[in-house]
Amino acid sequence: MDTKLFSGAVLAGGRSLRMGEDKAKLNIGGRTFLQVQAEKLIAAGIQDIIVSLGAPQGAGENAAGLTLPDIPGMRVRTVADSAPGLGPLEGIRAVLEASENKHCVILSVDSVLVKAQTLNDLMKLATESGPAITLLASGRGPEPLIGVYSKEILPEVSECLSQGQRAVRAVFKAFPPTLLTVPEGDQQLLNCNTPEDYLDLSKIYKESHL
Fold it and tell me: Tell me: the pLDDT tens digits for 12-28?
């Protein structure tokens, strides 16, 4: 598998309403969530890194003041949504349009427990099976914001958005995803929506990186 054929994107444009502060700026293990996720994509062998900022400059607080990861020898690019309030599906559209490669590994900024090796496993499955969408999943179903998306879905994404559909799953009818299911009890799919989640994730992250 040639990892250079993949771009990588961190979706960092959420409003973080339940958290009360921008999740991308939260600290874990001495780094921000955004830094951790960008470095994870690089550890997976990806060289084209994109950060989705959500609302366009001036249209929302996530569009400004976000410090991008300073990674030696690596250029981290940013993209903004075409308009505010369109949700993660618009973020996926924006990063796919900006991607230098056919495939883009999508990673939500708050899924900090996902391993670089898991991203490699997703990339391998996407390469070998050839689906337009490859997602990480648990017994409860797929996680739409952790996976590999192909540029070929762009017309369908745009059509869904034009019809007022915001859910990423709206695209799955035309492009059923191939799933990589983690074992029961695997914590990689845990995300961080509230201060309580942040405390729990910080503890798990610390224990797994001792």
Answer: 877 666 786 788 889 99
